[in-house]
Amino acid sequence: MNDPSLPNPDIASLRFEATLRRHGLDLRRGHTDVLQINTGKLCNLTCVHCHVNAGPQRKEIISRETIDRVLDWLAVSGIRTVDLTGGAPEMIPDFKSFIKRLRALPEVETIIDRCNLTILNQPGYEDMAEFLAAHRVSIVASMPCYCAENVNAQRGDGVFDSSILALQKLNALGYGRSEALRLDLVFNPNGDKLPPPQAELEADYKRELKAHFGIDFHSLFCITNMPISRFKSWLKHSGRLDSYMDLLRASFNPAAAGGLMCRSTLSIGWRGEVYDCDFNQQLGMQWKNGAPLFLWDIALSDLEGRAIATGEHCFGCTAGSGSSCTGVTAS
Question: Of the candidates 92, 271, 48, 147, which has an alpha carbon nearest to the alpha carbon of residue 113?
């Protein structure tokens, strides 16, 4: 029976649910230990693969009032990891204040900034790297290749050189060279294919970035391009949507389902609305209980065992070795 608090299922979501059932799987939330906050759609880049449709002209950003309510909720939640994503989180007006107030919460041990690197070189943000280091913010940085051609094709001209400069700046501050200042990189394919094996690609990244640029980092996370938003539009325009969906469905790996981020991460949008993951968020699959639910409407203790809202895009996270905000989900 369908959970009445979930969005009405469509044919695509039923197709994914049927695949789970064939493998004896029932996708439900486990213990929630990460709050991921999408701070909005404002970004200095306009990347082809972006599932948020972020860009320089977007106006959607988290307000100070919403930040206040999120912090009040966090103070009594027991959540130890807060993961900030966007857009470019650093561009919201209250970013530094938000980080300081998060760091002041004794329960919060880890603060993650999902950074596009280039923002650290933009006018007005020249001190951002030093600020992040001073507040012990972990950085997860998008770096879709160690070759300039692939990065610039996906993210825009000049992005590779700017990213290298930012990584060197972070290394000079101790990022990637100390466990206290964690620096992880994110790879996603340039186009409609699955990522290669993560461990092998990480070794390539470490060798190439060190040899050519003197760059160190901790881990590489491989993430599958999700067939939603801007990337889905690119697939449609290229006539590749059907073949990409066929690839994802054919590559379904039941072992990848256990480690999905939706089982342990709670996602909220820039207004504080609640979702199972950032991808569901971009598709408007908001939690409801008669009316839409916001973070301050829920208690963390009530979430374990809750059914997860799914759709056709979920084949992206369960294809091959799996895909999550921390890379692969299955060996």
Answer: 92
CA distances from 188 to 58, 77, 129 (A): 23, 33, 24
**β-strand pairing of 274-275 with 81-85:** unpaired
DSSP letter for 295, please: G
Q: Identify the band that residue 150 occupies on the pLDDT scale cut at 50, 70 and 90.
A: confident
- Does the structure show a pLDDT above 50 at 6? no
Neighbouring C-beta atoms of residue 123, cutoff 10 Å? 5
Strand 138-142 versus strand 183-187 pairing type: parallel
- Distance of alpha carbon 49 from its chain centroid, rounded? 13
- Does the pLDDT value for residue 247 go beyond 90? yes
Span 176-199, mean pLDDT? 94
pLDDT in tens, 288-314: 988 999 999 999 999 999 999 999 999
Q: What are phi and psi of 49, to 5 degrees?
A: -90, 0
Q: Which two tokens stand for residue 292?
A: 């839409």
Range of the domain at 104: 11-317
The answer to whether the CB of 85 falls within 8 A of the CB of 43 is no
Provide the number of structural domains found in the chain: 1
Please give the single-letter amino acid code of residue 37.
I
In a domain, 326, yes or no: no
Does residue 323 lie within any of the structural domains? no
